[in-house]
Amino acid sequence: MFNTNHSLQAALEAFRWLINPFDVQLFFRGIFQKRALVIKRGSPNFFSGLFNTSSFVKMLQNNYLEYGVNINIAKYTNGVRTTLNGTGRVYTGDVMKSYNEGCSIQCTNPQAFNDEIWYFCEILQELFCSFVGANTYLTPPKSSGFAPHWDDIDAFIVQTEGRKHWKVYAPKNPREALPLESSGNFTEADMVGRKIVFNDWLEQGDVLYIPRGFIHQAFTDEKSHSHHVTVSVNRKIAFVDMIEKILPDVVNLVAEQNKEMRFSLPPNAFDMAGVIDMRYDNEEAAEQRILNPLVSVAKNIQKAVTEYFEAGVDQMALEFMKTTLPPMLTPEEQALSVFGKQGIDLLNDKPVKITLNSQIRLIRKHAQRLIFETEDSYFLAHRMANSRVYEGRPEQTIPIPAESITGYISLMDAYPEWIKVKDLDCNSKKENIAFAGLLYSNGLILLKPAANEKEQLELPSSAPKNGTIKKMKKKRNTTA
Ligand SMILES: [Fe+2]
Q1: Of the N and C termini of the chain, which has fewer Cβ atoms inside 10 Å?
Q2: Would you say 198 and 98 are in contact if contact means Cβ atoms under 8 Å apart?
C-alpha cells in the first residue's frame, strides 16, 4: 500500500515506484509518448510482491478462468503466431502441458483475479485519467509468444520473473506515430529498414516503457523462462477521442445559435463540386456558395469548442467512471464505509447513524465526478461499484438535488481532510445530513461517527441559503 490518504498522491507514489530511480517529471517531459525507456535496476526482487508464477497458479485454482476470455495459449514459430486455446475453464494441468510444449500463456485481465495487480492498476488510474489494465505472459525458455506488433495503449513491461529479450522499433514517421488502433501482426521482413531503439535483455526486476505505436517483439533465452506483467495506460483518451465526444453537442449548439448554419445548400449544389475530377456545370459558383459558408460555419464551431471544452473534460471523466476499475479499499477504509468492518456482527452491532457532528471524507479524489446534465439536473457518476472486468457492469450514477451541489464542492475542497456533516454547506443542516446519507449509502465516503452522545443529539436548525447555483458555478473553476 502506498502511504498516503490522498489518492492522486498515492498514484504518483505508485508511478514513482514503478519507474524508480527515473524522475517522474523528466518522464512526462521527455519520454511520455515520445520514446521507449528501459529501467535496469539490478534488483531481481523489486517486483516480488506484485506477481509471480505461484500467484498465477492461485488465480487459476481459485477462479473460473476461461480460454479465449481470460487465458490465451500462443505459439510463435517461423514468423507465424498460432493460438492454441482449449475450451471452457483453464486448469493448471492444461497450462503445464501447453508450457512444456513451448507455448506462452497469456492472462488478459489479471486485475480481475489478483488483488496486488488490481490495487496497482486501480491506483494508477487517477494519474493517467484512463482505465489501467494488465496482461501477464508466461513464456518457456527458447520461445516467443507473439509476432511483432504495436498496441493502441502505452505499455509498461514489468519483468517479474526470469528474463526476456526485447526488440522495440520507433514509428517510421509522424503519420505512423501514436496510432488509434492496434496493428495486425508484422513479419520479420516488415522489420527491415525500421529504426530499432531497444534491443536487449530485460532482467527480473527491470521495466521497459513502450509508447503506443512502437512495434515490439520478444523471446526468451535458452535456459530461463519469463513471466512479465504488461501494465497498459492511456486507453482511448487522446484529443481525438475528446473531440469525437463533444463535437455532436458543439455542432448542435452552433446550429441553434447561427442562422447561416441552418440555411439549406444552394439549388443545383451537386453540379458545383465533387471529388471525381470531371466537369461540373456550375463549378465557378462552388467557392462562394458552398466553400465560403462552410468555412464560416467551421469558425463558429472552433469558437464554440473553446466555450465547451470544460464540459468536454467532464465527458471524458464520465467515460473514466464508466470504464475504470473500482477502488480496492484497505480494511480501515472498509470499516469506515458502507461496506462495514471485517467480522461485523449483523445481529448485535448498531447500524451507522449520521449526525451533524459525524465526520466524513470522500474515499478517493477521482472515484466520482459531478456532471451537469442540464441547468437544473445534476448527477454523480462514480466507479465505486464498477466491475473488475472491463465494462462488466453498467454505468453507475446518482441524481443529486440542486441544494446539495455546494455540499459536494465542500467535500472536494476539503479532500483529503475530514469535514463535519454540519459544515457541508448544503442549503440546510437537514439537507447536509440527507446528502451525507446519500453518499454513504452509495459507498462514496468514509464516515466517523460523532465522538459522544451529546454531539450526536445536535439537531438540524438553520434556514435554507439562497444563491446555491451561483455560488457553485463560481467555485467550480477552482475545483479539480
Ligand atoms: Fe504488445
Answers
A1: C
A2: no
Ligand 1 is an ion; its neighbours by CB within 5 Å are 151
Residue 417 — very low, low, confident or very high, per pLDDT cuts 50/70/90? very high
369 CA to centre of ligand 1 in angstroms = 32
Distance between Cα 392 and ligand 1 center (Å): 23
Q: What per-residue confidence (pLDDT) applies to 370?
A: 96
Residue 374, helix vs strand vs coil: strand
Q: Is 253 in contact with 311 (CB distance < 8 Å)?
A: no
Cβ atoms of residues 36 and 210 within 8 Å: yes
How many Å lie between the centroid of ligand 1 and the Cα of residue 117?
A: 18
119 CA distance to ligand 1 centroid (A)? 22
pTM confidence score: 0.89
- Residue 454: the pLDDT is 57
Q: What are the percentages of helix, strand and coil residues in the chain, rounded to 5?
A: 35, 20, 45
Measure 213 CA to ligand 1 centroid, in angstroms.
Answer: 10
Report whether pLDDT(375) > 70.
yes
- The count of other CB atoms within 10 Å of the CB of residue 122 is 26
Contact (CB, 8 A) for 379 and 397: yes
Give me ligand 1 centre to Cα 21, in Å.
24
Q: How far is the CA of 4 from the centre of ligand 1 (A)?
A: 32
Contacts of 207 (CB under 8 A, 6+ apart): 18, 19, 38, 39, 41, 156, 157, 158, 159
Whole-number Å distance, alpha carbon 166 to ligand 1 midpoint, is: 11
Measured in Å, residue 17 CA sits from the centre of ligand 1 at 22
DSSP states along 131-176? --EEEEEEE-SS---S-SB--SSEEEEEEEEE-EEEEEE--SSTTT
The mean pLDDT of 49-74, rounded to a whole number, is 96
* 150 CA from centroid of ligand 1 (Å): 6
Centre of ligand 1 to C-alpha 367, Å, is 29
Phi-psi region of 434 (alpha: psi -120 to 50; beta: other; left: phi over 0): alpha
Kindly state the greatest CA–CA separation across the chain.
89
Handedness of CA 266, 271, 274, 277 (dihedral sign): negative
What structural domains and CATH numbers belong to the chain?
7-233 (2.60.120.650), 239-321 (no CATH), 324-476 (3.90.930.40)
Distance 156 CA to ligand 1 centre (A): 10
Give the mean model confidence (pLDDT) for residues 365-392. 91
Distance, C-alpha 220 to centroid of its chain: 31
